[in-house]
């Protein structure tokens, strides 16, 4: 396909019925040709379109009308189904080979290995990330991406991490061939025209993603209609070019490139350059009975309770807890020396199992509408089910497991995958802090470090000083969880 004359086109035959000429009214204010894009974005799209060879290119605007069409595309393709018991909620089941982050195939590429990871003793495998040389990475990408979108559409997603235009916020452009990614990025980021208009020059992170399965290469039915290429998965980060390239996986942690890839891995490097911190932390505000309010950040690994703590409903009389964010914090000292933090995300990508009205009533209220559920069980009356909802959901109506099999409480396998997720707008959480979208961020008064340690250490203890706290935080360990490929 020649991109020199390429227009930002519609999708393939099925989707053209949904995005046809009569429906373009909802997209009228979005640039409809590559020439209307900022020059640097135009160059990036042309380069990757020539590499990936999509049949069509479509620029996303993030509108509700557009979102409905993407959900309908997924419904017709058998990727997603509406949950009739809930309000605009959808269920997605993935290939069982694509259910978690793949840390062993996640790399950072720099000229000097020491820029990325400490170099351990010969024969010892390091535990603090994976490095790949630029030449090896280039060969790996060249082995994967050429022609990978043949028969598919390339979707252009302009997005902002943090409020658009904020002093700590960052912009990104993600190119993907996955409608699931588009629908999820609309929830997790500030996506659309406002983000595109804020791009000036190269002030954005370039994100390329493909499920890694050209239509012509599909020789047998997909497992649960989920396109992926597990044997070729690679999630790469190129700090010198502010680029991310992810191949082969559609799972959120590997494909929603604004999340772990941008907000944490590349964010840590951007922060080091620019004087701020990107941390795997929740942010919450606590108000005591006298009306004094303090904001706290807390660092736990995935699936260790950040979301539950961020949405805590206190039982102590007179106390109130409000959520700023449940997963990632970008922090920077302001002109007065106050450490301020923003939640760069706009949604929750939470672990479903264990979430219930007892452990997290605010999360349960949040996910009743406009939510995408991935790899949870489905009840016969069109609701959702996972381990932890035994006392709240009537399973006698029948339950279909995340693998698409009939399930009962006596089944040997679980109804939901241990890393099954809900993707819901943060604005729906009843305990969101009034300043959760403050561009300047909220002032941080304390930092909590935690993890999954069922034995050997006290449940809670306090550092003697800030210096002691840094030592404790840097030396903590935690059990592996189902959020990565080596568990669950």
TrEMBL record:
Subunit structure: Monomer.
Gene3D superfamilies: 3.90.228.20, Phosphoenolpyruvate Carboxykinase, domain 1 (3.40.449.10), Phosphoenolpyruvate Carboxykinase, domain 2 (2.170.8.10)
Protein name per its UniProtKB record: phosphoenolpyruvate carboxykinase (GTP)
Cofactor list: Mn(2+)
A GO biological-process term: glycerol biosynthetic process from pyruvate
Organism whose genome encodes this protein: Macrostomum lignano
One MF annotation (Gene Ontology) recorded for this entry: GTP binding
Keywords: Decarboxylase, GTP-binding, Lyase, Manganese, Metal-binding, Nucleotide-binding
GO CC terms, sorted: cytosol
UniProt-listed InterPro entries: PEP_carboxykin_GTP_CS, PEP_carboxykinase_C, PEP_carboxykinase_GTP, PEP_carboxykinase_GTP_C, PEP_carboxykinase_GTP_N, PEP_carboxykinase_N
One Pfam family this sequence matches: PEPCK_GTP
């Amino acid at each position: 396909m020649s991109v020199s004359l390429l227009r930002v086109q519609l999708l393939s035959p099925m989707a053209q019925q949904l995005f046809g000429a009569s429906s373009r009214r909802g997209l009228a204010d979005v640039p409809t040709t590559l020439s209307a894009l900022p020059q640097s974005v135009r160059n990036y799209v042309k380069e990757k379109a020539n590499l990936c060879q999509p049949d069509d290119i479509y620029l996303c605007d993030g509108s509700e009308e557009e979102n409905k069409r993407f959900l309908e595309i997924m419904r017709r393709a058998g990727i997603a189904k509406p949950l009739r018991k809930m309000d605009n909620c959808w269920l997605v089941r993935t290939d069982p080979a694509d259910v978690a982050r793949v840390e062993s195939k996640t790399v950072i590429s720099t000229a000097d290995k020491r820029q990325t990871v400490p170099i351990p003793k010969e024969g010892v495998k390091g535990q603090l990330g994976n490095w790949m040389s630029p030449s090896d990475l280039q060969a790996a990408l060249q082995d994967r991406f050429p022609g990978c979108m043949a028969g598919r559409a390339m979707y252009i997603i302009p997005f902002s991490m943090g409020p658009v235009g904020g002093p700590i916020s960052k912009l990104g452009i993600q190119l993907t061939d996955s409608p699931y990614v588009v629908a999820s990025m609309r929830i997790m980021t500030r996506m659309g025209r406002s983000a595109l208009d804020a791009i000036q020059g190269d002030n954005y992170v370039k994100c390329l993603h493909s499920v890694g399965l050209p239509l012509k290469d599909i020789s047998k039915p997909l497992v649960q209609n989920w396109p992926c290429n597990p044997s070729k998965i690679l999630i790469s980060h190129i700090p010198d070019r502010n680029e991310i390239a992810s191949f082969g996986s559609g799972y959120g942690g590997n494909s929603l490139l604004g999340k772990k890839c941008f907000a944490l891995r590349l964010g840590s490097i951007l922060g080091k350059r620019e004087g701020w911190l990107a941390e795997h932390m929740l942010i919450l505000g606590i108000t005591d009975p006298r009306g004094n309010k303090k904001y706290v950040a807390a660092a736990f690994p995935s699936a260790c309770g950040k979301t539950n703590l961020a949405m805590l409903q206190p039982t102590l009389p007179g106390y109130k807890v409000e959520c700023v964010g449940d997963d990632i914090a970008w922090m920077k000292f302001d002109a007065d020396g106050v450490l301020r933090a923003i939640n760069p995300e706009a949604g929750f990508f939470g672990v479903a199992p264990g979430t219930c009205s007892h452990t997290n009533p605010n999360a349960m209220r949040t996910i009743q509408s406009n939510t995408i559920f991935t790899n949870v069980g489905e009840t016969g009356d069109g609701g959702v089910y996972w381990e932890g909802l035994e006392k709240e959901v009537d399973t006698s109506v029948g339950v279909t497991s995340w693998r698409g099999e009939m399930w009962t409480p006596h089944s040997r396998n679980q109804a939901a995958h241990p890393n099954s997720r809900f993707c819901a707008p943060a604005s729906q959480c009843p305990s969101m802090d009034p300043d959760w979208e403050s561009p300047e961020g909220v002032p941080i008064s304390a930092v909590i470090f935690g993890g999954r340690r069922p034995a050997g250490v006290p449940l809670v203890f306090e550092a003697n000083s800030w210096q002691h706290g840094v030592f404790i935080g840097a030396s903590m360990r935690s059990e592996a969880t189902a959020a990565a490929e080596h568990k669950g």
